[in-house]
Amino acid sequence: DTAVSQTPKYLVTQMGNDKSIKCEQNLGHDTMYWYKQDSKKFLKIMFSYNNKELIINETVPNRFSPKSPDKAHLNLHINSLELGDSAVYFCASRPHISGANVLTFGAGSRLTVL
Amino acid sequence: KQEVTQIPAALSVPEGENLVLNCSFTDSAIYNLQWFRQDPGKGLTSLLLIQSSQREQTSGRLNASLDKSSGRSTLYIAASQPGDSATYLCAVGDSNYQLIWGAGTKLIIKP
Fold this sequence. Notes:
The complex is a heterodimer of chains A (114) and B (111).
Chain A: E1 4-7, E2 10-13, E3 19-25, E4 31-37, E5 43-50, E6 53-57, E7 64-70, E8 73-78, E9 87-94, E10 104-105, E11 109-113
Parallel strand pairs in A: 2-11
Antiparallel strand pairs in A: 1-3, 3-8, 4-5, 4-9, 5-6, 7-8, 9-10, 9-11
Chain B: E1 4-7, E2 10-14, E3 19-25, E4 32-38, E5 44-51, E6 56-59, E7 62-67, E8 72-77, E9 86-93, E10 99-101, E11 105-110
Parallel strand pairs in B: 2-11
Antiparallel strand pairs in B: 1-3, 3-8, 4-5, 4-9, 6-7, 7-8, 9-10, 9-11
C-alpha cells in the first residue's frame, strides 16, 4: 500500500486553466506539506497543514489554494496557471510528535504548463 | 537566511568504489539534518536523520556525519552498487519542522 499518494502523476495543461493535485496519506500522520521542486532541483515548501489547520504558508501566489478536508488529505488547487508554475510538486506528511522530523514523501506530480 | 549547498552536482564512479557526498550549510543553528534519495518517478526516500546533538548516523552501507560548527555534513557510501544511482539530497531542518534543501548530487554508478 502506498503511504503517500498523489494524483495525477503527470499533468499537461494550457496557460490560464485551473487544475488540482490531490494528496492522500494512510499513515495516520497529523501534518501534511506541499513542496515545489523547480528546474534546478531545489525543493521549496509551499504550505503545511496540521490536523486540517494551515500552519505554514510561504510566499506563494494566491492563485495557489490548499484544501484539507480531513487530516489524511491535502489537495492543491491552482487557478489561472502560468508557465512558471511548471514544476514537480511533492506532497509529504509526518507524525505530530516532538522531534519527529522525518517526512514521508509522495512520488511527485509533474505539472507542465504550455 | 539558511542556505544549503551540495558539491559535486554530479558524480560518476565505477561500481565497488567508496564515495563521499558533501553538504554545507551557512547557519549552524540547525535542528537536524537529513539525507534523502530521489529516484525518478518514485519520490523521495529518507535515508538518514542526524539530530543536532549527534555526530553521525549509520544505516547499512551508508554513513552520514554532521559537524555543526563548520556547517558541514557528508554522506559516505561504501562499496557502491549500480542500484545506488540516484539523486541525493541534503536537507537542514529547523525547530519549526521546515526543511531547507540543497540542489542535490546526481550519482551514477557504472557497472
